Amino acid sequence: MSTAGANTWQPYEDEPVLTPAMTEGHRATPGKEMDRLRRYLEAVVDDRRGGPVHTAVAFNAAYFGYELGGEGYGNGAFDIDTFPALTLGDETPALPVGALVRIETGSDPLHAEIVYKEGRHPCMSSGADIPAWLSGAPAGAEGPGRWQDASSPVRRELLVPDLTVFGPALQLPEAKLKRFRARQKWLNKDGHVVVDARYASASEAELDDTAAFVHHLLTRQRESLLSPLVPVSIVQLAGGGGEEEWLREALTGLLDTVRYALRTSEALRSWGHYVLARTRIASGLRHDGALGEADLYALTGSVERAAAPTTRRRHGLQGPRTAFTAIGPWLRALAGAEPLLTGVEYAVSVCRANLAVADFVRRDTDNGLRVGSGVRITLDDDFESGGIWRSHHPGADEADGSDPLTPAGRGWRDTVRPPETPATEATDHTAEMEEVPEAPFADQALTDETIGIQNYLRIADSELCWQTPLRLAHLMEDYLPLTPMVCDMLRLLGAETLSVRLELGHPGGTLEASEEVQEVTLDLTGETGALRGVQWPIDFFPGLRIYVQWPRGGTVFRLSTAELEEPVDVDGQLISHRYDPQVLTRDGAPGSGRDGDSSDGLDTRRLVLRAVRRLGRLTPDGHALLDRAALPRGVYATSPAAHQITALEQAVGELLDERHLYAATGSRGADGQPHHPAREGEIPIPLIGYAPNPVVLPRPGTGGPGPGQVIGTEHFVHGFLRRLPAGWEPTDAQRAAYREHCRRVGKADGWELPHGYTFVTAHSRRR
Fold it and tell me: Which of 21, 625, 727, 745 is the most buried (most CB within 10 A)?
């Protein structure tokens, strides 16, 4: 029974809980609108037995009108026959969490919402020890150094369906569901569906949860998305004519708002995109049986002990030890836990277990390093087998300042060198591509030739969009390089130089009028084309990400930056916009600047920092590692004198003590190249490293009402469906208004009002 209060949104009774402001993300959402959405989502989590509720599932509830008290989507805007079909063990196009599906049973299909999914690699089916390569492995991986054709990879996935969301009318009797689970023909014994999920491309397999769900809404669930029967249409919320990119941006903004509402609720706790009610977590901890406090304490202890030395050696040091613990298999091996691993309860148990380990890491370790045992505990994979935690001893060598709760994928990365992602076929221009960089460490580090590369974000018939970080040279020489694909197309115009229009956006920043719209020169004379004569704003810095949009065949280039969710401080530099940490490390080293690039006048400490940042080998997160023996020549360019060596060692010691630099151990191969981590059989060498360590800062003015949070102002309400009391009928004017509403949202011939509903026309009201 729902505990929703009188102020909780009721679909088809109250005005919609989603608003146009929410399509711009949570920062643009007025406080009262956010509070109203948050109250409703808290009630949804409570109504669904305390969770877990994924961001995509919460969006479905708010958009499609999930009714509390057991009805769910029973009155929703769905043609259930259009839902994607699933069959246990079959291959199927990949589906995200939040997908509405039809599970084939040979008789009455099961209609459900996918509320959780995880990787279920075939190598885990035997319950054997977790192979290191599996942690963080890409879709299609079959073993160390073995993977399928990356153009269309397949990954074994476990999907957890919620079979109750469409109300009593579409629920099968519990006895019949038990027979399905016992036969394991339509559902497995736990009430889940295991499928071989095929992805259209390697880039699609790497999309984050939000991007994958938005893509699903705009393709396989499009008919439901654009139905005029929803409480408020995305077409209305987006304020446009239904253009694809407009809808995509609006959906992304709505999901950002929904996730923020969930994460900022005092009644909920988050694990990734999933939330659980705190009351549900507390009741589980008070439970004396399986998965109670004692079992979760045992879990955290086993993660630590997996890599801890078992004995003390009298002479020498223990060799390094690394272990991986997968949450799903650990839970299934626990005596008495089986009832808590069936149906949606499995998802609850997995999230609770991961939260227990995460709390242990937050409270009882120094950024992942357990002081007593010397074991470093980090999350390595948040998808495969319910999540995989990595334990390593000695952990002090790996305490590099990185977030231990950000999946690092070191299991795969440290055992194989992933293949290069094949180039996208010229005919495949429809997929939305997220930038997902590889994460090698220093022995596979990126050099100056490979940092700061441009990444395509979207390739469509009408436009090309890409992102590129600003390099120091771009700022000093007033230019922006173009991608090869754009240059090839522009050369078809027949001109080597051309005057073009540049439009610059900088949300959250300040631009001069002359910077917003500029006339610049398109230069195609060299091997790589560029926009020259660009007037960069004074607060643009090396590493700032620039997002570029070019309408095909046009002479307009639209550039913009993107704000960080929270500003950060990196070595005293306040950064409020997205940036490339590699470029910031390299081009933002001491002595670099738009007025020149010189080490003149720098003291020894800053010369050391400059040498490590400019000469060290880079990792994707901006770390730089330098062979300690190469440091003197890197600082002084020539063989240093004795007094210089003394000053250098003093400066290094101070920087290490103050944690501006850190020490590490690598090895040198037969070819003379340094490696990190150290390789077996190679000569160990000392390294010195730089870590950017961004510190999150609160935004100015947080805590008070933001822009647009004006009390008692008039606001606009879009037209929406409202349920009528029994025996009431809508007027002819309301029927006509609904038909017109349907035409506006894309139904050319209009629809008739569904029985039992009226249509409330758009209006303004004061709140």
Answer: 625
